[in-house]
Amino acid sequence: MKRIINSIFVVTVVTLLGSCTKDFLELEPQGLRFEENFYSNKTEIYEGLVAAYDLIGQKYTAGYTYHSSYMIRNIASDDANCGGGNAADMLDWQEVDEFRPDPSAATFLAHWWRSYFGIYRCNQIITRVDPNDPELLSLPSDSLLLKTYIAEAKFLRAYYYYELATFFGGVPLVEDLLEVSDPYPERASIDDTYAFIEKDLKDAIVDLPMKSEQASNEYQRASRGAAQSLLGKVYMFQEKYDEAAIIFEEVITSTEYELDSSYSSIFTPSGDFSIGSIFEISHSGISPADWTANNSRSFEGNVDCQLMGVRDLSGSSTHLNGWGFNKAEPNLANLFLAEDDSIRMETSIYSIDTLNNRQGGGLTWNSDYKYTGWYCNKYAPKQSNRGDGVGASELDYDVNEKVIRYADVLLLAAEAHMMKTAPDEAKTHEYINKVRDRVDLDPIDAGLTGNALFDALVKERRLELAMEGHRYFDLIRWGLASQKLVNQPEAASNFKGSFEEEKHEYFPIPLQEIQRSNGKLEQNNY
Fold it and tell me: Which residues of 183-201 are buried (b: 16+ CB within 10 A; e: fewer)?
């Protein structure tokens, strides 16, 4: 085997059909095709694109750690605490929960690597595929097909960079195929990083199909609406509210999406790729994955479900046992109760005591580390979310991760209209009330304006998107993190640490990458 040193950009093999089965830093050439001989026909280009998609669902790497972006974002917020078995259980996440993240933490390094491996796979398609190459054009429609593949790769590259930018700030921008001998790229500013993402998304929008133009078995692929929505999110992080309002309106007026009539169905396998889904990470329960090293990067199921279930739960007819991470915080439950928001509460979180009473008692469980009695229900390990039982049971959950929902876009549009140069608070009311009406809640006070209206929006986003991993970065871009993410009586269970301004807006750059860069990567404020 050949060991590769510069982990940021080197992957010299494209994994066929998206199943990536080797350690991050190792190659095993037997029977594999290398990029010098790859991308020579449409089939190979498609296989490379599938491989580029595959890494968005990666949450674990054997020999390293769990590095689920969803879990980290959720644990850092006031929606949830880390939980687990004890203070050392997933120590990297415990440190995130307590706002003392360690630059040497494996979870950050694995997330960094995952993103750059994904970028590398996207760059293979973007740089190697020519939609006008006559050797690739056997049908009149082939040029359009190849342009779509390139657009999907640009969307995915933008998504990976968006993940890096929100986690770490400005990062090295790699748009070409680098060699092992090339110097480590310079770190870009956050402004330049967002500009790079914007360009990729604008390019992708031109050639991506509308969702209605996709076959039903292709909904896991990027659509024009997904690229427009992600572009709007990037604008929001930069406070480009005028641009965000425009692009979100394009999504809304396209009539491609609607709010799901049933909120409770969204987070079930039957709710995957629904009318309210704009982009989601697909998970399968039919993979024979297990815990061996050879399967360490090919888990197709949603392992987050196993991580966040009630620890050592037994006796439930609906919920299966888990490992106790991502426990919901009491202040989130109290907010639902204060708003009489029963529909969203029952879908989002549950009390183990309520579950026990509902089933007539008889449940047993372990109320261990950072116990609150409240758990995430949206991605809970449920019998209804299990796949076909092939492979390790913990890896067999097939509920998809909802990355961008139409309700998210409506509420972001409501915010953008309120904050843009010429505010349109009527639109803000309209979109907030549309989201509330779906769950049988009364409209917000028609007289709300200014700060009071903003407060209503902040509350609505938390209720609608609870436990979905949006809250943490919402608080950061609103400048509210130092108010909400502190140890004060109303701030949850006091298990959590305190957010510090000008420090915790980003996570630390992985120490191993700083060392490899020979000083080109400067650490964030840690």
Answer: ebbebbebeebbebbbebb
